């Protein structure tokens, strides 16, 4: 009898303890939302060359860490170096032609000055001899000859003006800039850029991933050759039930445990909550929503992704994209240091 009573007391105690623990867990969960549906993420950036050509150097290996500015691969620069030499030669030719054209302009200006002087002299001579014709101090032929010379001098001056204007147009001068020189210099700069683009460098600190190329492979302009995991910023995408969203706000502190480091606690900050997910049903077709008839007696809460910005990684415990995480949103102010889990 006593043993039976003791057994009932123990059983009741266990049940009550389980109920109390369950209620406590539910209360803590409601106060501090928690989920194990979370994964470490980072930005994955595809690296594509600005120029096309075969790869002649590949100093990196798969899964290697690289720093900003490290050489990733080299596209054969020889065709672009030839293009640069050609552009520089074209610039030199343009400079020579510009100098020649400037000399031609100077000659045209001098010729115009001479023609203007001749036209002025012819006009003055005509004004001197015309009054002498009525007094018969000069013959009519001499006056006609002076008039002819004045007209010829005027025509020569106009021709000199046209030649000067033509020479200036050929120089293509606009203010202090010369259009031909600007075009040639732009071609040189563009060729220099192409030569520089042949050496592709890391734009940030990161990690080489899924390297499947080798020396000799043809790289095409704008097409991704390798991928880098951006090591500058790490975050966790934690999927929380929609019933918890009213207790999760940007700026709240979050505790993160990673499956790869089970005894280590990391800190993060809630950056924001997703505004949309793909609906399982009820998609809009045309102008009317397509709502299929269902008999769901139990409605499951949807899960929305919450982005949690992680603190700077520990060199001894680096983050890895895709790692499983367990996240608890604590709220309050953020902290920046990691501590060992109790």
Which band does the percent of strand residues land in?
25-35%
> What does the radius of gyration come to?
43 Å
Query: What kind of oligomer do you see?
Result: single chain
The geometry reads as: elongated
Order of helices and strands: HEEEEHHEEHEEEEEEEEEEE
What structural class do the secondary elements suggest?
A: alpha+beta
Architecture of the largest domain, CATH level 2? Beta Barrel
Helices, by number, come to 4
At the fold tier of CATH, the topology name of the largest domain is Elongation Factor Tu (Ef-tu), domain 3
How many beta-strand runs?
Answer: 17
> Which spans of ≥5 residues are poorly predicted at pLDDT below 50?
333-342
Mean pLDDT: 82
Order the strands across the largest sheet as they lie in space. 1-10-15-12-11-16
Number of domains: 3
In short:
The protein has helices spanning 2-31, 78-129, 140-171, 179-197, and strands at 34-47, 53-57, 65-66, 71-75, 173-174, 177-178, 199-201, 206-209, 218-219, 226-241, 253-258, 261-273, 284-285, 288-289, 303-310, 324-329, 339-340. The protein is of the alpha+beta class and 342 residues long.
Structure description:
- With 342 residues, this protein is an alpha+beta fold.
- It folds into three domains: 129 residues, Efflux pump adaptor protein, beta barrel domain (Elongation Factor Tu (Ef-tu), domain 3, Beta Barrel); 54 residues, RNA polymerase II/Efflux pump adaptor protein, barrel-sandwich hybrid domain (OB fold (Dihydrolipoamide Acetyltransferase, E2P)); 117 residues, Orthogonal Bundle (Helix Hairpins), CATH 1.10.287.620.
- Helices cover 39% and strands 27% of the residues.
- It is built from four helices and 17 strands.
- The longest helix is centred in the N-terminal third of the chain and has 52 residues.
- The protein is elongated and about 170 Å long.
């Amino acid at each position: 009898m006593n043993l039976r009573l003791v057994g009932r007391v123990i059983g009741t105690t266990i049940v009550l303890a389980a109920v109390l623990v369950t209620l406590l867990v539910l209360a803590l969960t409601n106060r501090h939302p928690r989920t194990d549906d979370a994964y470490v993420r980072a930005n994955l950036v595809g690296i594509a060359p600005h120029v096309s050509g075969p790869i002649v150097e590949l100093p990196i290996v798969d899964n290697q860490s690289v720093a900003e500015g490290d050489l990733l691969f080299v596209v054969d620069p020889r065709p672009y170096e030839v293009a640069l030499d050609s552009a520089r030669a074209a610039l030199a030719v343009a400079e020579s032609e510009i100098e020649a054209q400037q000399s031609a302009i100077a000659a045209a200006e001098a010729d115009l000055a001479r023609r203007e002087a001749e036209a002025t002299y012819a006009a003055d001579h005509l004004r001197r001899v015309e009054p002498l014709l009525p007094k018969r101090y000069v013959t009519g032929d001499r006056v006609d000859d002076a008039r002819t010379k004045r007209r010829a001098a005027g025509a020569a001056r106009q021709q000199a003006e046209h030649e000067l204007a033509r020479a200036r147009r050929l120089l293509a001068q606009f203010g202090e800039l010369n259009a031909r020189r600007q075009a040639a210099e732009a071609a040189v700069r563009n060729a220099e850029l192409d030569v520089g683009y042949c050496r592709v460098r890391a734009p940030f600190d990161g990690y080489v991933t899924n390297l499947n190329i080798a020396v000799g492979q043809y790289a095409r302009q704008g097409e991704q050759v390798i991928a880098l995991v951006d090591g500058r910023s790490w975050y966790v995408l934690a999927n929380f039930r929609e019933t918890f969203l009213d207790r999760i706000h940007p700026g709240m502190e979050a505790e993160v445990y990673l499956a790869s480091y089970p005894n280590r606690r990391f800190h993060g900050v809630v950056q924001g909550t997703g505004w949309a997910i793909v609906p399982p049903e009820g998609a809009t077709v045309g102008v009317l929503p397509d709502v299929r008839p269902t008999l769901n007696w139990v409605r499951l809460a949807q899960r929305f992704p919450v982005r949690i910005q992680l603190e700077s990684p520990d060199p001894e415990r680096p983050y890895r994209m895709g790692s499983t995480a367990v996240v608890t949103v604590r709220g309050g102010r953020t902290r920046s240091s990691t501590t060992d889990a109790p």
